[in-house]
Design goal:
binds adenosine-5'-diphosphate, alpha+beta, 38% helix, 9 helices, T-fold, binds magnesium ion, 355 residues, two-stranded antiparallel ribbon
């Protein structure tokens, strides 16, 4: 992404909003304008750029949608976008007894739901490309560590080793129309991509219902659709520790997704243990505290955030620099901030700290 001055866009913005009318219509419009005067024009503009905002609780977080445009377009579009996200949430929630994932995990019922198969296919591709760092079969480990409950704890090393045997995406068989597993103990959890997929779905629904300017924010993972009128959407990039803000991006048609050791964690004997696991060791991935992915596709951003987090600063950044369309901000456990090749420069705007 490149930073472009807002003024460079002002002209294109105006050109786009001027309707092409026939001469007779133009005459009528001019008469109308004379009648309502300047106030009328201002009201029209206010109406055009009305920012509608709504938040709902879903996917274990607060999801907000901000959409710009006439209310009669934005309000129903947002309602449908939320509806679609709720459907995705229910379908991908491993604790929901009605979810095909629940039946697959518990009873080995093959998954035939096309939507889940599409996301699994995507996840398996990321697994291969990340050398197994990303793996939707880590579920038994998450369970062992107690991250599905409110009381996580460090398990015995022997239990971790035992669970590692039941982990590995190669234990899944993805056919054209069904997902099967080769061992009954294999379980899947699409938690590392589902939020990105839900955001992508919300954005398609908004677009299909006439919204061209919106910000979808699922607990800090966002997608900026179009621009905020003649300006960019400003998206903050969080540091892994609450008070930090690393900077902000001027975003347009971009997802900004974060992962980190601060989202779900516990400390035991002074050590921080979090919910992103290295499938090779059975322990939480180390090396990074936080990562932010900037990419056109929210599902890719979400998946790569988890994959690169597991790979850590060296391996992760090396791979990131080979990925087209993906930019990364990493914060290491020792507090260093690393930027992928495309971000080095003036794209990331540093907010001056006030003390
Ligand atoms: P969130 O933003 O909701 O914290 P993330 O995108 O950071 O989610 O993904 C974390 C979730 O991904 C974990 O809660 C777990 O369900 C799953 N997970 C943990 N480790 C891995 C891994 N190595 N590969 C794929 N999924 C993982
Ligand atoms: Mg993720």
């Amino acid at each position: 992404m490149q930073r472009v001055e807002d003024s460079a866009f002002a002209e294109t913005g105006r050109r786009r909003t001027l309707p092409r009318k026939k001469p007779a219509v133009i005459g009528l419009v001019l008469l109308g304008l004379l009648a309502v005067g300047l106030t009328g024009i201002k009201l029209y503009n206010l109406h055009r750029y009305h920012l509608e905002t709504e938040s709902r609780m879903m996917m274990d977080t607060v999801v907000s949608i901000h959409a710009l445009g006439p209310e009669k377009i934005t309000v129903p579009a947002m309602d449908r976008a939320f509806g679609r996200m709720a459907e995705v949430d229910a379908r991908f929630n491993i604790h929901n007894p009605d979810s095909p994932i629940y039946a697959f995990n518990r009873f080995g019922t093959p998954i035939t739901d096309p939507e889940i198969l599409e996301v699994v296919r995507f996840a398996l591709d990321i697994s291969r490309r990340s050398g197994g760092a990303f793996d939707i079969t880590v579920s038994p480990l998450i369970d062992l560590w107690g991250f599905y409950e409110d009381t996580p704890r460090v398990p015995a090393a022997s239990d971790i080793a035992e669970r590692l045997d039941r982990i590995g995406y190669e234990h899944l068989i993805l056919r054209k129309d069904r997902l099967e597993k080769i061992h009954p103990d294999i379980r899947i959890d699409l938690g590392a991509v589902a939020k990105g997929y839900a955001i992508a779905q919300a954005v398609s629904v908004l677009k299909a219902h006439g919204v061209s300017s919106a910000l979808v924010d699922a607990g800090g993972d966002v997608y900026a659709l179009g621009k905020k009128g003649s300006r960019y959407w400003h998206v903050g990039i969080k540091g892994p520790r609450e008070t930090q803000v690393l900077g902000y991006l001027e975003a347009e048609d971009t997802a900004v997704v974060g992962s980190g050791d601060y989202e779900r964690f516990f400390t035991e004997n002074g050590v921080r243990y979090h919910h992103i696991f290295d499938p090779r060791t059975g322990y939480p991935a180390d090396g990074l505290s936080g990562i932010t992915l900037i990419a056109p596709d929210p599902m890719a951003a979400d998946a790569w955030a988890t994959a690169l987090f597991v790979l850590g600063p060296q391996e992760g950044m090396k791979l990131a620099d080979t990925l087209a369309d993906i930019q990364v901000v990493m914060v290491t456990t020792s507090g260093d901030t690393l930027l992928s090749a495309g971000l080095r420069g003036d794209t990331l705007q540093t907010i001056p700290t006030t003390e």
